[in-house]
Structure to design on (282 residues):
């Protein structure tokens, strides 16, 4: 990203700060001594996140046999990593729920898209040797973070991007690239400011050009593929006039049958994602 863009972003005074609960959870899981109890303590200090955890834990998405009425119970039933991922998702989603001010964009639909990409990325990562599927879930949730920031803080530029896309008949990403300010670079800048891990910054920056992601090429390729699948299955917002042709990044080493299987799995999750998460986000 050019210095000019960085400077421009730095001038936005009210660029959101990293959500407190998310930051605590992320640093907690890096500690060797992290435990279900410390995760529970962090969550319970945030009543909004606690309420959302309990709501989704009891939704049709997880369909528990017995009602889950406490965070402790949710961690035991659903697992430490699953709860960690939910906390990260909820603390971010809560940040950008307002009206985005554009007829073309809707925060709820953008978040549904992000969740579908998170779920899809986790499914793909499980099939690729050496990747942490939980990291990839978080990366998927975050990949289009810059889109929301674009809508809220770069309105003038976004009007120009939309006009360029309309006039030249190109997709939104290409119009952003033509004008020199992409949602990927904005999102990566915010992730850097938030001191998120290198893998998250790289995936956000390169999810449309995974081959440029250096050592994180596979992670970026996973999210790139999950993004394409979520668009093809039309889960949440998927952009304007975007092609839905699936190109399997070679670096993943997955064959067509495997990707079709994953697409089928994600298709089966579609209604559960929309019903359960749609109720909780925004
Ligand atoms: Fe994107
Ligand atoms: Fe996306």
């Amino acid at each position: 990203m050019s210095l000019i863009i960085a400077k421009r972003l730095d001038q936005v005074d009210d660029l959101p700060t990293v959500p407190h609960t998310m930051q605590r959870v992320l640093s907690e899981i890096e500690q060797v001594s992290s435990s279900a109890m410390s995760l529970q303590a962090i969550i319970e200090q945030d009543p909004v996140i606690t309420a959302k955890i309990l709501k989704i834990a009891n939704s049709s998405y997880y369909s528990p046999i017995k009602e889950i009425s406490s965070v402790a119970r949710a961690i035991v039933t659903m697992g430490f990593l699953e709860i960690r991922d939910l906390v990260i998702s909820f603390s971010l989603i809560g940040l950008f729920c307002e009206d985005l001010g554009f007829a073309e964009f809707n925060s709820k639909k953008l978040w549904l898209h992000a969740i579908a990409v998170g779920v899809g990325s986790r499914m793909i990562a499980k099939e690729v040797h050496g990747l942490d599927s939980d990291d990839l879930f978080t990366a998927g949730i975050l990949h289009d973070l810059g889109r929301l920031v674009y809508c809220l803080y770069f309105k003038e530029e976004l009007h120009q991007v939309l006009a360029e896309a309309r006039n030249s008949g190109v997709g939104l990403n290409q119009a952003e690239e033509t004008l020199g300010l992409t949602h990927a670079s904005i999102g990566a800048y915010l992730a850097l400011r938030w001191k998120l891990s290198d893998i998250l910054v790289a995936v956000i920056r390169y999810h449309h050009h995974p081959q440029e992601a250096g050592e994180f090429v596979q992670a970026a390729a996973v999210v790139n593929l999950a993004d394409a699948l979520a668009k093809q299955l039309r889960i949440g917002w998927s952009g304007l006039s975007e092609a839905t042709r699936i190109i399997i990044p070679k670096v993943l080493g997955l064959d067509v049958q495997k990707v079709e299987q994953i697409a089928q799995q994600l298709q089966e999750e579609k209604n559960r994602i929309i019903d359960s998460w749609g109720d909780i986000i925004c």
Q: What stands out?
A: The chain has 15 helices and no strands. The longest helix spans residues 256-280. The chain has a mean pLDDT of 88. Residues 18-95 form one domain.
